[in-house]
Amino acid sequence: MSLPPEVRANYIGIIDSILAQSDLSRISEKKVRQGIQAKVEYDITPQKAAIKGLILERFDIFNARQQELESKTEQAATPAPATNGYHAPSPERPTPVKSPAKREATSETVSDVIDESLPKKKRKELSVDADAALAARLQAEEDKRARPTRGGSSKKAAPVKKKTPKKKTAVRVRGSDESDLDDSLTEKKPKNTGFNKPMNLSAALSELLQGETALSRPQCVKRIWQHIREHDLQDPSDKRNIICDEAMRKVFKQDKIHMFTMNKVLNQNLYPIDD
């Protein structure tokens, strides 16, 4: 049963909204379908098969976009190779001003206020006096900083005691918190249902993914994009197009494939694992 265009467009909006707010490694097709049911005022059960296909289609698009974004991030983080051994010089950091230079600058400032109308000899004497006064003031400041505070040499500040959070004993954890601990561990593991359910790989896909025989859809997409990045197979003029090497041609049956079309063809190389 196919979906009418207006219904399909409405479902796409709901699905995209759910996927945009979800962890793609943990979301399931059932959760998305329940989200659609919560947004409409009629029973969507008769459309279950068509909705499942639409959810998988939108999931593949979101997953591909995520991999493309990771690819762009890696490329941006990789520095451009140097040409002919030349490395662009890094911008020089300003050299911190040392104390003698500070003294010289301050001394010049003091000398600037000396009346230029005075005889040269007198001006020189005033400048020397000003330098001497400045040196004495700077020395006094240094002594003041070095001098210990009153009672500082005889008393030491009491060390601040850090409060250590109480830890539950092993017995208490096993007794009272065992169920909570198990629940938290269970929540962190991706569920092997829906999108994350392991699937059998075709022979060509298994060869592309270095002998893997069973992976989930997201894992397959991630590994394929890893292969694409390692072999630089994105079309420089349009990064959404992938230039297939020999291993990828065996799976996708073409020399160049769009990233979204790649996910559709990938479905033809995944088979349910018989329980």
Automatic annotation (TrEMBL):
The organism's place on the tree of life at top rank: Eukaryota
PROSITE patterns: DEK_C (PS51998), SWIB_MDM2 (PS51925)
Region (Disordered): 68-126, 139-198
DEK-C domain location: 5-60
InterPro entries linked to this entry: DEK_C (IPR014876), SWIB_domain (IPR019835), SWIB_MDM2_dom_sf (IPR036885), SWIB_MDM2_domain (IPR003121)
Compositional bias annotation for Basic residues: 158-171
Pfam families: DEK_C, SWIB
SUPFAM superfamilies: DEK C-terminal domain (SSF109715), SWIB/MDM2 domain (SSF47592)
SMART domains: SWIB (SM00151)
Stretches assigned to the DM2 domain: 194-272
Protein name: Uncharacterized protein
Protein source organism: Endocarpon pusillum (strain Z07020 / HMAS-L-300199) (Lichen-forming fungus)
